[in-house]
Design brief:
The complex is a heterodimer. Chain A is of the alpha+beta class. Helix content of chain A is about 40%, strand content about 20%. Chain A has helices spanning about 5-15, 25-50, 55-70, 95-105, 120-125, 155-165, and strands at about 75-80, 85-90, 110-120, 150, 175-185, 190-200. Chain B has helices at about 1-5, 20-40, 45-55, 60-75, 80-95, 105-120, 130-140, 145-165, 200-205; strands at about 165-170, 175-185, 215, 230-235, 240-250. Chain B contains nine helices and five strands, in the order H-H-H-H-H-H-H-H-E-E-H-E-E-E. The termini of chain B are far apart. Chain B is α+β, with helices and mostly antiparallel strands. The chains are: A alpha+beta, B alpha+beta. The interface between A and B is large, with 71 and 62 residues.
Chain lengths: ~200, ~260
């Protein structure tokens, strides 16, 4: 008489002689846990020895800001006859996005920046007593439609990245701002404050 | 029977050969750890040294900013008398109205500074800040104690009126805290080394006589903050040089402009 296969299977399971739920499979669970523990320990072991933080965007933003201030093609006052640049003295006529984009196109850095030239705070407050300064972006054109007081190294990219930087995300794909404030003189004798923000994608 | 044996044939290495696979994984991990230990360069080195080499260091950028800022200050054109007096009056009036900002701008002091600048236009008219310092030294050298005090006050207030910067602070009436970076001048320096860092610049000026004039308008948030020093020499009329020291305090993140 032929026995059904399933009856045979059951009989073999009772014997412990193989089948789907072999005891060895159950014993593999601690093996798997051990493997995971070993992997985790190795991970923390390697982390504890090596600390590599290779983000140099902070230093890069400082250097690029100085590049714009000190370069002959930047926005500092240039004496064409002597071929001499006066860092620390800004020429408003050269403080333009066109000029900066042309300058930074040669270097083509991965980070992008915006320079905003404003009056000194005392002059600003004196002249605008009723208004409180401090809006996040103060890029304004003169009444005559003349030069604005903002200059970008790459305007399209900056405006695309700025919302992500304002959100302040972390991790891969986030954009971090690196800012500085510097007092400068202007051709014409009045002081100004240049606020610089560079954006770097991580 | 033969068919049943074929159906339920067990693998030689356990079910699906998983035992062998896990053995290989653990062996691989052991080999990897060994390779890491052998190949890590200087794995016993000081972590701080390793970090400084690989990670960008805050010192470099702060030093660059301090030097750049002092350069800008020394090249700044002095304001004319009208603008200077307008700024001084504005600061005095705001102080009267109860606005809080760093520095002393009481009426008496502002009046004395105005008298000094009115009586010594050659000190600042048509000059930059380094020329102003040089001119002050020439007057300081021939002044009595009272005159020297006037020069100290003039330096302090004129520097503040020129270089005041702001930080957003909604708790303040004007929405900003106004402050200026500390700057001091030694008219007769022995060297161009930065000053000791355990005292403020104006304490060094008063108590230790290291500087002749000083301007320090820091807000309380920066009193104990870390700073970097920038030093430059300014030529004087008598052929010597003055030492100008600026202490650059990196702004807190909340004070910096947003994108």
């Amino acid at each position: 008489m032929k026995k059904n296969n399933w009856m045979l299977l059951l009989a073999r399971q009772k014997k412990g002689d193989g089948g789907i739920l072999s005891p060895k499979m159950v014993l593999l669970i601690p093996d798997l846990l051990f493997t995971v523990v070993v992997i985790v320990i190795t991970y923390f072991f390697v982390l504890s020895i090596i600390l590599t933080k290779t983000s140099v965007s902070d230093v890069e933003s400082t250097i690029l800001a100085s590049y714009a201030h000190n370069s002959k093609e930047g926005f500092s006052l240039l004496d064409a006859k002597l071929d001499r640049v006066y860092p620390g003295v800004v020429d408003p006529a050269r403080f333009t996005t066109v000029n900066l984009e042309s300058l930074f196109a040669k270097e083509n850095p991965a980070i992008v920046g915006r320079f905003v030239k404003n009056q000194t705070i005392i002059d600003h407050l004196r002249q605008q007593e009723a208004k409180l300064p401090g809006e996040p972006v103060r890029c304004i054109a003169t009444e005559a439609g003349g030069p604005v007081n903002c200059a970008y190294t790459n305007q399209k990219k900056f405006e695309r990245w700025a919302p992500y930087a304002r959100v302040g995300g972390k991790g891969e794909g986030s954009v971090k701002p690196y800012a500085e404030v510097r007092y400068v003189d202007t051709a014409g004798g009045k002081g100004a404050v240049v606020e610089t923000v560079f954006l770097a994608a991580s | 029977m033969k068919r049943e044996k074929m159906l339920f044939k067990r693998g030689k290495n356990g079910q699906f050969g998983l035992e062998k696979i896990f053995s290989y994984i653990i062996y691989g991990l052991a080999v990897m750890v060994f390779i890491v230990l052998v190949n890590l360069p200087g794995c016993i080195l000081d972590k701080g040294q390793l970090k400084a080499v690989i990670e960008s260091d805050a010192t470099l950028k702060a030093e660059v900013k301090a030097e750049a800022q002092l350069n800008s200050y020394l090249r700044a054109q002095m304001p004319d008398k009208a603008l200077l007096f307008e700024r001084l009056d504005w600061l005095k009036n705001k102080k009267k109205e109860g606005y809080v900002f760093a520095g002393q701008f009481d009426e008496g002091k502002v009046k004395r500074v105005k008298e000094f600048t009115d009586g010594n236009p050659e000190a600042y008219v048509g000059k930059d800040y380094s020329g102003f310092i040089s001119s002050l030294q020439a007057i300081y050298a021939v002044s009595n104690n009272d005159g020297k005090n006037r020069i100290k006050e003039a330096f302090e207030l004129v520097t503040a009126a020129m270089f005041f910067r702001s930080a957003r602070d909604k708790t303040q009436k004007i929405g900003h805290v106004l402050y200026a970076l500390p700057i001091a001048v030694d008219f007769d320096p022995k060297d161009l080394k930065p000053s000791r860092t355990d005292y403020s610049l104006c304490t060094l000026e008063k108590d230790f006589k290291e500087f002749e004039v000083c301007s320090d308008n820091r807000p309380y948030e920066l009193f104990y903050a870390k700073f970097w020093q920038a030093v430059q020499a300014v030529p004087l009329h008598d052929g010597g040089f003055a030492k100008v020291e600026l202490r650059y305090y990196p702004e807190p993140l909340s004070w910096l402009p947003k994108p």
